[in-house]
Write a structure and sequence with these properties.
Two copies of one chain form a homodimer.
Chain A lengths: L5 E4 L3 E7 L2 E8 L1 H9 L5 E8 L4 H9 L2 E9 L6 E6 L6 E7 L19 E4 L4 H10 L5 E4 L3 H6 L1 H10 L2 E5 H8 L4 H9 L5 E5 L5 E5 L26 H4 L6 E5 L13 H16 L4 H18 L6 H4 L3 H15 L8
Parallel strand pairs in A: 1-4, 1-8, 2-6, 4-5, 8-9, 9-10, 10-11
Antiparallel strand pairs in A: 2-3, 6-7, 11-12, 12-13
Helix pairs in contact in A: 1-9, 3-5, 6-7, 9-10, 10-12
């Protein structure tokens, strides 16, 4: 059996970022870039995006070196690549945008190459929800679909955004955005509102406070994007608590700590890296069980924790599988509180 | 061997609280009250505080019904009990104080009854750090000492507060207060600053985001308050990772999730309840290992999660040990991410 692919659609950009630790000028960035590179540590990735003729060849070479299929990355002759400039201060949970030059991205219409359409794992990174819908219309064989978004679309296209949420299996959203979208301060109730739209999983990214996954009981109806997966939550009930089934914990099925970092160099792309690591790990295992989704959250957190330790994708460029495995084990040691065989 | 006692010193109050869920008028409150009642689910408690003649007899009877020794609770004839009034809004992480009437509390000088002085577990709830120091001067046999504080003392008596921190084993503090005290936005670095003052453990309470425990590697020098405990961290190394010893995770040794609640009725006393549950559990086991301190954090979180589900101590009044045990198990299910025997 051939390996499952992760299809990722979103922005590929050049970022100018300033943080208390320093700055990066027109460095490689973009939601699809971060998530594709993160996913590539686990599974083969197909990227869909657009860049201008100014996009440095070294970046393209880097993506290819990670085994990322770039057939779907359009290069617009004479065009300029999407450029974002921003700063971070204080607890660095929120970026201050200085400039957004959409350039070639403003006319972006995601067209999937034929070879991409049967991808089994689909991640719609943060882009216009109308474009996310167009991508969903093109995939034919998805086992798991996921999306991310940002405050700009919540404010500007909330109805289209809700339509996307109703058509995917997993919604990634940060805590501030979740409150903005729902008008609800309590995160458990806010997540329940999003789950009511249809997604089986709502994964709330909380930066330094970790991530929380909410599930729709009793058995999440996965696989909206395509054919049914085989009995995703029926593996002898191992690890699946009955109180999840009853929605007994406010629909919350997993809380992950964040990795403690004494210094966050650049938080740009942390959420994208998280989602990419999550999707890559799921694709590599093909297993849509609660337990595997928990592990995927921790792998996503692991990748994100590395990413913020340097500007742009610099840390991911030198990241090794051994480092990922080591930090994953550290996550266990941080959160476990009983002597168990796993320790 | 007789059971270890928890000595708790702090405010006993009448609180008037308004939240989006309703209000309570002159209901039982106070840091020492919440923490004593929480601790009483695990171990015998001795309380030190002061109330006025207006303090309702039913409250005194309730404390006694929980097995709390009230010999150290002074009743000032003709005096009025400390009264606090406040409101909570939005995410309810921060109280807005409307009134603080210290009354008899303004002349409070904690005098330990003779029978209290040999208490092995000592919790200095939020009071004037100078009074906390006076209590430490009176205890003779402490195995574990802990303190809590608030923004008022951080602003008003930071030097005395640091002196208390240097003399206890465990510092409880919330994330906003930790940032205020240290002027450091990064919580890992901020906690390191507090650990540098001397306490073996800094436990950061983060409300809806759970709690994080930082440890001073390699072997925390516990038992400042009295005699040495026997080899507290030398139990075959079970569960104690070498990377803790190297301080490899920024000194963080445990991250606990918060229990997901769809409705927080009244957050008053959550931090006190957390600390009381922690101290009570430690006292009940007498075990000063990393693993036991982790469990204590989860028991503290468990008690706190119940407390916020009703006004005043109303939820704790009807809480059962079976409910505590059940929710503790739910905490496991929320955070574990590998199939283990413990599941």
């Amino acid at each position: 059996m051939s390996q499952s692919h992760v299809l990722i659609v979103g922005s590929v950009a050049l970022d100018s970022v300033q943080t208390p630790s320093g700055k990066a000028e027109r460095a490689l960035g973009g939601a699809a870039t971060y998530s594709s590179v993160a996913a590539s540590f686990f599974a083969p990735v197909r990227i869909v995006g657009v860049v201008g003729e100014d996009f440095p060849a070294e970046h393209l070479a880097f993506l290819k070196s990670r085994g990322i299929d770039t057939e779907g990355l359009q290069i617009v002759r004479g065009g300029k690549t999407f450029h974002w400039a921003g700063t971070y201060e204080g607890d660095m949970n929120q970026a201050n945008t200085l400039a957004t030059e959409l350039n070639v991205f403003s006319d972006f219409r995601p067209e999937l190459p034929e070879s991409y359409k049967s991808s089994e794992f689909v991640f719609l990174a943060n882009i216009d929800p109308e474009l996310q819908l167009k991508v969903l219309d093109q995939v034919t064989n998805a086992k798991l679909t996921a999306m991310d978004t940002m405050n700009f679309w919540i404010a500007g296209k909330p109805d289209k955004l809700r339509e996307v949420m109703s058509r995917v299996d997993v919604v990634f959203i940060n805590d501030a955005e979740l409150r903005q979208l729902t008008g609800e301060a309590n995160l458990v109730r806010a997540a329940a509102q999003v789950r009511a739209l249809g997604p089986s999983y709502v994964i709330v990214k909380k930066g330094e406070h970790g991530a929380v996954m909410y599930c729709t009981p009793p058995v999440p109806p996965l696989c909206k994007g395509g054919k049914e997966a085989s009995a995703p939550f029926d593996e002898g009930g191992k690890g699946v608590s009955t109180s999840f089934g009853e929605g007994g914990i406010g629909g919350l099925c997993f809380a992950a700590a964040s990795y403690p970092l004494e210094e966050v160099i650049d938080p740009t792309g942390a959420g994208d890296t998280f989602a990419g690591g999550f999707m890559g790990y799921i694709a590599s295992t093909g297993e849509l069980t609660h337990d595997n989704l928990r592990r995927a959250v921790v792998y996503g957190s692991t990748l994100a924790s590395f990413n913020v330790q340097d500007f742009s994708l610099n840390r991911l460029k030198r990241l090794t599988k051994a480092e990922i495995a080591e930090r994953y084990e550290e996550f266990k040691r941080i959160v476990f509180f009983e002597e168990t065989d796993a320790r």
